[in-house]
Each structure stands twice: as structure tokens, then as C-alpha cells.
Predict the 3D structure of the following.
Amino acid sequence: MDSNQKQAASGKPPAANSKKRKEAPSAATGNNKNQNQNQQQGKDSRPPSSRPQKRVKFQDARNIRSQPSDAALDSDGKLDLQKFLNAREFEIKALETSMRKCKAANATRVFQQVPREMRRRTASHNAKRVPKRLRDRAKREMLEDNTPTVESRKRKPRTTRARIRAENAKRLERLAAKKRKRALEKDKAGEGETKDAPGKTTIRTRAPRPKIRRDTLNEPPKIKSKFKKRQINKTWLPTHLWHAKRATMTEPTKPLWRFAIPMTPTQKCYRPTHRASGQKGTMFWDTSYMSTARVYGTAGGIEQVLKALGLAQESLWGNRGRKWRAGTRTWSGMVSRQQGSSRRDVGPATILWNPTPTDKTSAPESSTAEPKKIQRQVLIRTHPACFLELFEELVRLAKLQTPQIHVEDLRFEIGSIELTGPGSTETLLAVLQPYHTDERHGQVFSSLVGVTNPASLPKDAVLGFSVKDPRLSYPPKRVDTASKVSDLALLETLTQWPVEEQVKPYALFDRDVRFKASNLPPQKSINRRKGANIPGREIQVTAADPPIPVIVFASRPATGGQAQGTWTLLAPWKCILPIWYSIVHYPLSTGGNPRLGGLNEQRQIAFEQGTAWFPGDFLGTNAGVVWEMEQRAQRKAAWDRRPKGKRIEWASLDLGAGRKGEIGDGLACDFEHLFGLSKDPSSSSPSSSDSAGDESMTLNDDPNAMDVDQSREEATAASTKSGKDKDTLPSLATVQQMKKTEFNALISSKDSDSSRPPPRSIIPVNITFVTRGVANACARIYRLPSRPPSPSATTVPPSSTEAEVPATDPVAAGKVGSLPADLRDQWLQKLPSSNSSSKASKVSHAAPHIPPNVDLSTRKQLMAKSLLSGNPLPYPKPSSVGINGGDHPLCPGEEDLIGFVTAGAYSLSEGKGTAVGAISAEKALDTLKEFGAKEGRLCVVRNAGESVGWLGRWEVI
């Protein structure tokens, strides 16, 4: 036995300079089990018993190449200095390379090479969490290092419920095996029958269409039996199974608006969301939870219903609203309902008219009677948090019309996808291919190559056409960039927008077309056709591929400017998933793929754009009240879970000037405290003037009643029963929300008596901090305190000692709660215009530095001079609101509290702290009329549980 055979038998690796190390192990050195494992795992795989035998690249990393010393000698035996130095240089470089490779080979694991947004802790013990190309290596490394791994199939159930489910699964598996065995035996027994033998006659009937009831809530789609138990109290989105592996979903027992909604992706995505939504890439969401209702009937009746919902502007029903009534534009805004003598907002809605046929649209509109009798259809898309309230209001208003109009619930008939970002148009162009080449809207949509911002389209533009099944051209190909010629054509298209002539009714409104589009060919059929096709060529459309009706419309944020717009795609509910897969895997021209977004990302983008997010920032609506009460309960539960030594004690908070304790509830946007409302529902019932709207208001206290077809009496009883858990809802629900146009009209009005806002009214605002500061939810918003009135001539002037007391002096024992007289001026000095003088004053009062090259006597003199000058030491910093005061102004008093922050953080788009909140309309109006727009919009924001406030400026949203 030679040396190599001895090494192989002993399990030791061969020598570094041996050539046998790169050869595969011989058949004699391994058993049959190892050979089978090598055949299954591939070349680089090794059996578990071959751990000492490292792979080839590990051995190459440890191999240090060198050169014999004889190579540096000449033929006569003399040393060639140049060759000797070159050889040593090569050896040093080989040593450094070997050290570097060896370190990387030993220390680098597979889960350390995954993308940076992937969670490495999960990938370290689960091979399925790493990319496919690295899974075999990950399994091998875990096997070599004895990493504890758990397989779901071998995991023992820990609970009784899990054990019962496992037993039922085994029982069902045995039953299925018996069924397959009987079917196989039956097939074998029938092999001798001829083809002409008479068989059973089967009659194929049309699949039943889903039932849509008029003026009644619709039922969720029929659920598969295997998923039925998981959707008892909620409904899955069409893309739920895809989201469940890639996003954090709502808790199974706590659905949101009776839907299982993705909250945020599992990947780290806060900064990537900011970049993809505004700089490069695109963000997309499955918004099929957004509720849709169809109103159909006479044009006059629909007009009266929409006017009753708050769409009473003359611009909508005049010549300016002609395009909206024709169906080529959408309307987006807040809808409201009458509540006593005032109106109360319901929530945001998007309203779209279905165009009339060409022969009817060409009829003259000079006659006043005929247009009112034309049968029209309207699609109303709203948020699920306020859908029940809006639907019941629609049904009530529809029954008042003559002839009566009807309302249909299309929540589970129409799904939607939203996209935003520079690559959103490019993604839709690659996925949505028009089915008919002669459709005008499809042609215009295909010509939008090169659009990087949906806001560049005409405001609220609508396109309705039919598209092919995206699976026929999967995976989607990258769209070619626009040339100079196409740029000119694109500019002409955006300017003229030639879609308003010969408009046809949108197929998405047709129930039969939606049903045919929902019966798409199965994926197996698509795979067979793709396998029979030439590689690289798209599958041809056949009669078995129905057209998919879609409606796409572009919207722009209310703030305007250069902010990115949003594409909204409406399609049949069952067609959302095929479109979704193509969007996910589209290769953007800027690199990468579209990024997934959840509910948190929607709120983040709205926050960075400076707009309010529904329902969290709309406390003047019933949906906003329900959201606020749920957030209060979550904050209270999180506060209770913290140890007593690590949670904020609200009663011991020091606000300075002898003030102790937090103002109101520190875990809530306590508008009850601001307006003096009682949190006891029995003592805070609305006034008699609002009694007309109390019944409809209490119907929506329970958001889980959305999908339940119940009467008004049952709903009232259910809401009364749930009122014990939401005892603060009635008092908070009396708060009203004003619109920006209404508040601006009050500012410009000169009549002080008639220009007063309604009682308990608030306005949503966007706050930008002037210098420093970051606000959190529930932060307090103060206005700047007013200056004290100047003393009259008859008043005895104060003594010189009292007049010269600065704001930083300690407060006397008998003046607890008194604030400095010049507190407003102290806050005004924090404006950026006064920063230069304050910095100069700080520099002038700073202690002089001792020069380094000074003799000992001079150093002593300078040190004595600095001690006698009385300059304060830079450390420790005095407390800003302590007993001895400080250089930061105190927060204003409780009488200057005007509102609360609903969302706040550091804005990546602004580069500073911003916040979204709500303030009292009455106090804001008084401040603006007293101090003007420049100083009246300044405010102080203080986080709940903190003592320091920061100067900001608010703007009405």
C-alpha cells in the first residue's frame, strides 16, 4: 500500500503538493452509501463522514506556492540577485493571498452572502431562506457544523390543537391513498373495454355566476375547504398566499377591516421605500381590500344622491365637470352626510361615471328632460373602514329617489393594485398588453412609453380597455426606452389627450364580461401550451383566452409640486393574481424589480408627501375615531407590559415653572381634554341638534360588522353591546373636521360674528420643524403664548428688582405655575434669522482658551482671570426646565394647547423632522387673526412624557 492509499484509508487529506488531491475518491475507498450520496448531491457534495476532507478550494486557499532556491542560481552556481528578489516577492504575495483566501474560506458562511435586506438570523438555521443557488451549500455547512435544524414534517406538535390537526391530516392522507388505489384498480379493470363502448352521458352546464343582491351587502367569495377554517372571521386577498411568505400579516384573530392585510414586508425597507417611491424604481400594493359599490339608475337620481354626499360644487355639474360626467375623469375627495344641522365627513372616495354609448352621448343636451332620464352607472371606491357607513347612506338616499335607483356591493367582484414611483408606468406597459388593437384607450396607453411620473398625465385621467392574460407573455420583457421621436409624440399625447371622443362604456361595469374574464384557463393548460411552443416565443391568443377588462387611472398628491403620482389598476377579483405575478417579476430598466409595500409603507409615503392618511389622521370621522381607540388600547397594553421602573410616570413629569404631570392622557390624542368633553358616554351625549345623525353614527362603531347582513335594530344592539369596550367613542365622535377651503374662507372673512368655525371642529395640519426636533404620535401642539398686556399709566410700575428678574430665575413659592412674561419672545428668538446673533453671544461669553506655548506664570494669570470672570462651565449642562432654568424656553401653558400629533418622524424627503396632526380650528383662527400668517402659524411641539418642546410651523392640509 503506497502513501496515498494510506492517507485515504486513514481519512487524512493528501499532501499540498500532491496531484491526487484533485482526483475523485476511488471506489475502493468509499462504500456504496457514500457513492449514492455523491451521485445525488453532485460533484461538490461529500458524505457526512468526510468532514476532514475539505473541498478543493479550501485546499487551494491553504496551499502557499513557493519556488526552490536552485532557480536563483546561474549555470556556474552564482546567485542571480534579480531572480532571487523576484522569487521572494512572489512568495510574499502568495503568502498574503493564501492568508486572505484561507480566512474567507473558513469564516464565510452561506447565510452571510445573502442580500443585505434579508434576515440573516433566519437564514443561519433554515436553508430555505437563502437563494436557491446556495441552498445545497447551506445544507452541507449545517450538516458539517451540526447546526440544529427543524423540518416542519418531523416537528412534533406541542399543543392539543396541533396534535389533533396532525392526526386528522394523517387520517385524511390514508383516505386519499385508499381513494387513489380504488381509482387505479378501476382503471386497470376497464382496460379491456373498447372506445366504442357506451359510457356515461355527462351534461356540461355553465358555471353559476356569483349572486349580487341589490341594496344589500354582498357575501365573500366561496372559500376552498382546505382554507375555510382560516377565514372564519376575515377574508383573504387574492394574493394572500404570496404575501404570507414575504410580509408580516395582521394577526389571525385580529383582522383589520375584516381582511388579512399585509402590514409591512419582512425585509428591511424603510429607506428603500423612500428611494423606490420617488427616485428610482417603483412600489406596488394589493389594494383589493378597498371597497367598491355600483350605483345605477337615472342620471337625475344619481346626481341627487351624489349631491347629498357632498358633491354639490357647481364646477362638477357645470361645463367644467363635463369630462367627469362623460367618464374620462375621476373625482377624488371626502364624502359627507347630513347630521342634524351640520355635515359630518364619512371618508375619502373616488367616483367614476360609466360612459354612455356613442349614439346617446351624441344626442343634443339642449333638452332638459331627456338627459335626466338616461340610465347611467357610477362606480364609488372607498376605504373599507368607512364602507358600511357609506353603503347604508347610499341605500337610504337611493330609496328616496323617484324612480328608485339601486346600489350593488362589488367588494369581492373588483380588485385593485396601486403603483407609484418613476418605474410604475413602465411596469404597467410591460404587463398590460391591449387585447384589441383598435381600442382607442389601449392605443393611448401603449403610447405612454417614457412617462416617469403619473402626475404628468392630465389630472384624474382614466383609461378603460381589455388586456390579454399576462401569463401568455410571462416572464414580462423589459420595455424599450423612448427615442427622441417618441418623446415628441408623447408630449403631443399628454397635451391633447385624445381619448374623449367616441368613448365606449367600460367593460368592467358589465357583470357578464367580468364573469367570463374570471374563468381563465388553468395554469397547467398554460404550461402545456408553453411547452409545445417554440422557446422564446409568446403564446398566441386563442378563443379560450378571454379578454380581461381593466380600468387604470392616474392620481396626483394633494400637495402638488414634483411629488410622484399613483397608478390605480381595477380588474376582476380573480384576475388580480395573474397580473400580480407579472408585476413582481418585471425587470426594471433602472435595475431590480418593483418593491412590495404594505400598509405601513402607504402611511410612510403619505407622511413624506405631507398628506393625511386615512383613517389614522382623520379624527373627525367615525373610522378615524375607531382607529384612535384601537391605537390607545395598543399603547396602553405596551405601557402596562413595561416594568414599572422603565415606563413613564405621567404624574411625575416636570414641565417647569412648578407644573407637574402630563396634560391629559399621555397615551392618546386627547381631544376630549382639549374640548372639555367627558369620557363617560352617559354624560357626553350629543345635543338635541345632532340627534338626527346619532343613529347612523352608532351603526359604525363596530368595524367587524362590515360583511354581516343585519338590520338596523341588530346593528344598533351590537354597537350598544360593544360600547362597554369603547366608552370614549361617543364623546370623541362629536369632534368635526373642517376642510381646507372652509378654513381659508373663515380667515379671509371680515365679519367676526359669522366667521366662527363650528364647535369642537379640528383641521388637519402638516408641521415642519424650524430647526431641530422630531415628534412622535400623541405629541402636544401649542401655539405661542400671547404677550402680557402693557401696564397703564395709572398703574404703579414694578420695582427695579422685580423688573430685572430674568426668565431663568427660580420661581417663587407663591407663584407656582407662572410663566415668564417674555416667553413668546424667547421662542421667536429660536427662528433661523436670529441664530447668528445668538451664536455670537455664546462665543463672546465663552471662556478664553489658554495658548499652548505660554510660560507658567502667564498660564497662572490667565487661569485666575478665567475663574474670576464667572463664565459658566460647559459641563454639566443645566436642565432646560429645572428649578434653576436653562437656555431653552419653557413650554407654553395648558391654555395654549391647540392639538395633537397623529404621525411624526424624521422625513427623508425634507431632511428634517415633520409631523401630521390636528389642531383646534377655533384657536388656530384666533391666533392667525391676532398675529398674522407669519407668527400665527408658529407652534411648539412637545412629545408626550417629555419636557422639551421644539419650534415648528404648521400648514393646513
The longest strand covers residues 342-353. DSSP finds 33 helices and 24 strands in the chain.
